[in-house]
Design goal:
Layout lengths: L1 H24 L3 H20 L3 H12 L5 H14 L7 H16 L3 E5 L5 H7 L7 E6 L2 H14 L5 E5 L2 H4 L3 H5 L4 E6 L6 H10 L3 E9 L2 H5 L1 H9 L3 E9 L6 E9 L2
Parallel strand pairs: 1-2, 1-4, 2-3, 4-5
Antiparallel strand pairs: 5-7, 6-7
Helix pairs in contact: 3-4, 3-7, 4-6, 4-7, 5-6
The structure holds S-adenosylmethionine.
């Protein structure tokens, strides 16, 4: 009968969408990104007439405790594991690599390139020593608007200055606009073709000092080959790779930690 056929095809489509395709693409970074970051995002945006950052923010408001940064991080990870993938650094790379680098660097002044919804911003800010400052750059105004609310909900707003604009435009203004001398830690997590350009820009602008740490996400997937080639071969850096997986998948990825030697 027609209703039975309709029910059967709906169940089949839902099974494909929820389990079969995500299961099939989770070991392949490129396919996982096309599925989660292009196809599913477009389907859900169209069906719900909302954006992924807005849905992520709603999950934070629903599940996280105001003023508790770790509960915000947990709510976002749950949303990404159970509802929809999002391009945060994620819990695996976050807890195993990013948090450790922040804690061992104990930075007074941090720059984050690429805020998105503020997930890594909250992770970093919650580990900073008192009086430390984190400047985070985001050029998409819709993402920045959501990030502001996530950061405020987590209760870390007094440590964070969210700057809306392009990295290439703002890096040269860091000293005069924000009184920055040098950065102790830079987390590179914006578009991958900017990693090398912005690193050279930070060098030219005198924003790195001996011992400054650059931590670059996604150096395998989507990958930043020109950056890796430069940072691993330059005598000005001591560089180390940390193997991991693309956020919320089992596809290969990793972070590159590079210490500026002056
Ligand atoms: C991978 S997401 C950042 C994820 C975030 N660091 C986290 O882990 O929660 C990359 C973000 O960088 C922003 N972006 C990309 N290129 C940029 C640039 N040149 N300047 C400022 N923001 C940029 C994008 O709009 C996007 O929101």
């Amino acid at each position: 009968c027609i209703p039975c056929l309709l029910t059967l095809s709906s169940v089949l489509l839902y099974t494909l969408y929820k389990w079969v395709i995500p299961g099939a693409v989770q070991y392949h970074g490129g396919l996982a990104l096309i599925w989660h970051d292009v196809i599913v995002e477009w389907i859900l945006d169209t069906l719900t007439q909302s954006t992924r950052p807005q849905r992520l923010l709603a999950a934070v408001h629903k599940k996280a405790t105001r003023g508790n940064p770790r509960s915000v991080v947990k709510a976002i990870d749950e949303f990404c594991n159970q509802n929809e993938w999002a391009m945060n650094v994620g819990n695996e790379k976050g807890s195993e690599i990013l948090d450790s680098v922040v804690s061992e660097t104990n930075p007074g002044c941090v720059l984050e390139l690429g805020t998105y919804c503020g997930y890594s911003t909250v992770r970093i800010a919650s580990l900073l020593p008192p009086h430390a400052q984190l400047i985070t750059l985001e050029f998409n105004p819709d993402n920045a608007a959501v990030a502001r609310q996530v950061i405020a909900w987590a209760g870390v707003a007094e440590k964070v200055r969210l700057v809306e604009g392009e990295s290439g435009e703002w890096i040269p203004k860091m000293k005069e606009q924000f009184g920055v001398k040098t950065f102790d830690l830079v987390f590179l997590d914006h578009w991958k073709n900017r990693y090398l350009l912005d690193t050279k820009l930070m060098e030219e602008c005198g924003l790195l000092k001996k011992g400054s740490v650059l931590l670059a996400d996604n150096v395998v997937c989507p990958g930043a080959p020109d950056y890796l080639e430069y940072i691993r071969n330059s005598p000005q850096y001591k560089s180390q790779f940390f193997k991991s997986h693309l956020e919320y998948t089992k596809a290969e990825d990793g972070l590159e930690k590079s210490v500026f030697l002056g």
